[in-house]
Amino acid sequence: MTGPRTYLDHAATTPPAPEVVQAMLPYLTEMWHNPSSIYVEAQEAAKALDRSRARIAQLVGAADPDEIVFTSGGSESDNLALRGVVAASTRRGKHVVTTGVEHHAVLDPLEQMEREGVAEVTVLPVRPDGSVDPAAVEDAVREDTVLVSVMHANNEVGALNDIAEIVRRVRAKNPRTVVHTDAVQSAAHLGVHVDRLGVDLMTFTAHKMYGPRGAGALYVRHGTPLQGQILGGGQERRIRAGTENTAAVVGFARAMELAAERREADISHERALQERLLEELPRRVPMLAITGPKDADSRLPGNVSCAVGFVEGESVLLALDLAGIAASSGSACTTGSVEPSHVLVAMGMPGELARGSLRFTLGRQNTEADVERVLEVLPGIVQRLRALSPIPVTEPPSDWAPWFE
Ligand SMILES: Cc1ncc(COP(=O)(O)O)c(C=O)c1O
Fold first, then answer.
1. Measured from the CB, is residue 77 less than 6 Å from ligand 1?
2. 3-state secondary structure of 222
3. What are phi and psi of 216, to 5 degrees?
4. Does residue 331 line the site of ligand 1, with CB under 6 A?
5. CA of 42 to the centre of ligand 1 (A)
6. What is the reported pLDDT for 350?
7. The listed CATH number (2.60.40.10, 3.40.47.10, 3.40.640.10, 3.30.200.20) that belongs to domain 18-258
8. How remote is the CA of residue 45 from the centroid of ligand 1, in Å?
């Protein structure tokens, strides 16, 4: 790699903050002992875990630190929430409601449970901006619905969901239905409060908020039926076995603390850069449609997603990489696959247009110069790729029209 690089993929992962690394170091070098052991060094590690749990509980508004279960990250928390509730609720039913734009860490375990015959899943369509209609969730809830899982903020197009309203409606229809939300993307940017949102289960991960990878949590409201999925040593109140990753948990708590301290500054910084890109990209690149909500208030700060007609998103990404810009075509986990993003397809976007999807996600270190660099290089990249394309660049098909409005 030569020359300066511009990192615009903060929704995939964020660089650990220096304060986070500092907080973690003593637990890698001195207090590395097993927190379940009896001697004094181990007890120091156990105390650090307790302090981190209490701090995270306080930051997300949990009534009791015991409601925070540490996991290895967002995927594990999502899997635990879904499998754990379904397994603990077999006498009440097996119906689960979710949406077509969830992360694969939600959709894949549900699909697997359906194949196994232990769950019956209703996957709801979403609105063209990627958000879900709370009334549609309410309509889908039945007497035997044991779980509703709807993400707080979408990782690809930045659409925010009105989780508080969804919870109110679900409770009114069936007070026994458990509600889970994946707050992996929103917790970093917006801050989340379990009582204000009203959910029973909430998924977090540290590495999207300038913390380390390999640390996350599931908030579990007391009284929620949940069967542990990793069995063994009995850690995490027997819900999640495994020797705790003390250093990562300490880093996670520090990252969440910093996110809370810097929230206002982070939001206004990211919104300013985001707005410039959202406004300017469609002006500079012909046949580029912004995807996700149009107004900033309904959109995750820092998220800029679009679909460019008559190019492959992957080819644009490679060219951007050569120009020193690191971006994504949607979720990092599906980068490399030739299928158009399941999120854009669920939003109703024609597959041919969805193939040209790009995502720029801004963070603390980005500057106006980074944004200007994208605006400078992207039009030329798209023009070159279109000129080389074996597919003739014609007038956009009529079903693309609504996406350019
Ligand atoms: C919405 C959402 N949920 C879950 C995950 C998975 O989190 P992790 O990488 O910590 O397993 C991601 C990561 O991209 C995400 O964006």
1. no
2. coil
3. -160, -175
4. yes
5. 31
6. 95
7. 3.40.640.10
8. 27
Task: Quote the CATH superfamily of domain 6-13+264-404.
Answer: Aspartate Aminotransferase, domain 1 (3.90.1150.10)
- Give SS3 for 93: coil
Report whether residue 224 contacts ligand 1, using a CB cutoff of 6 Å: no
Q: How far is Cα 11 from Cα 274, in angstroms, rounded to an integer?
A: 13
How buried is 280 (Cβ within 10 angstroms: 0-12 exposed, 13-18 middle, 19+ buried)? Answer: middle
Q: Which residues of the chain have pLDDT under 70?
A: 1-2, 330-338
Provide the whole-model pTM.
0.96
Tokens of 379: 């039009």
- Give CATH 3.90.1150.10 domain extents, the chain: 6-13+264-404
Please list the helix, strand and coil fractions of the chain in percent, rounded to the nearest 5, in that order.
45, 15, 40
Nearest CA to ligand 1 atom 14: 12
Nearest CA residue ID for atom 5, ligand 1: 74
21-49 burial by CB neighbour count: b if 16+ within 10 A, else e?
Answer: bebbebbeeebebebeeeeeebebbbebb
User: Active-site residue numbers?
Assistant: 333
Is 183's C-beta closer than 6 angstroms to any atom of ligand 1? no
> What's the pLDDT at 191?
84
Ligand 1 center to 75 CA (angstroms): 6
How far apart CA 264 and CA 320 sit, in angstroms, is: 30
Nearest to 85 by CA among 106, 66, 71, 58: 106
Q: By alpha-carbon position, which residue is closest to atom 7 of ligand 1? A: 74
Pairing of strands 288-290, 303-308: antiparallel
- Nearest 5°: the CA angle 225, 66, 171 is 40
- Asked if residue 182 has its Cβ within 6 Å of ligand 1, the reply is yes
Total count of residues recorded for the chain: 405
pLDDT at 294: 87
Q: Return the structure tokens found at 354.
A: 């969805």
Delimiting residues of CATH 3.40.640.10 domain(s) in the chain: 18-258
